[in-house]
Write a structure and sequence with these properties.
With about 55 residues, the protein is mainly alpha-helical. The chain has two helices and no strands. The chain starts with 18 loop residues before the first helix and ends with a helix.
Length: about 55
């Protein structure tokens, strides 16, 4: 057992079996992608502004 190495990994768990889990997973992965992040955040603001009660 001289070569035994242990590591702890902490990661987000995704449940894509439900519709909301799939959406959350897709958004989370998109936000981790530098080429998508800025556009996605801008899109989020547009959607939230459109949903506001006037």
């Amino acid at each position: 057992m001289d070569n035994l190495r242990l590591s702890n990994f902490y990661t987000e768990r995704y449940d894509v079996g439900e519709k909301i889990g799939f959406v959350k997973t897709t958004i989370d992965f998109a936000l981790q992608e530098p080429s998508l992040k800025e556009d996605l955040l801008h899109f989020k603001e547009e959607i939230l502004d459109a949903q506001k009660v006037k």
